[in-house]
Amino acid sequence: AVPVDGEVFQGRSTVTVEHLTGESKPLEKKMGDCIPGGARNLDGMLIVK
């Protein structure tokens, strides 16, 4: 899980935020996207700052 809110600095992945927002569809995150703390990484690698 992503420990804190941040911005994807490097990488690309699919994450789920279902337990945070109720949104059941996985979301693709890439460089420049905001990502909430607690999001669960499903695949790929992300560097978040």
TrEMBL record:
Residue span(s) of domain P-type ATPase A: 2-48
Subcellular location: Membrane
Membrane topology (UniProt): Multi-pass membrane protein
GO cellular component term of the entry, any: membrane
Pfam family, one: E1-E2_ATPase
GO molecular function: ATP binding; metal ion binding
Gene3D superfamilies: Calcium-transporting ATPase, cytoplasmic transduction domain A
Keywords tagged on the record: ATP-binding, Magnesium, Metal-binding, Nucleotide-binding, Translocase
InterPro entries xrefs: ATPase_P-typ_transduc_dom_A_sf, ATPase_P-type_domA, Cation_Transport_ATPase
Superkingdom as given in the UniProt entry: Eukaryota
Family membership noted in the UniProt record: Belongs to the cation transport ATPase (P-type) (TC 3.A.3) family. Type IB subfamily.
Protein name: P-type ATPase A domain-containing protein
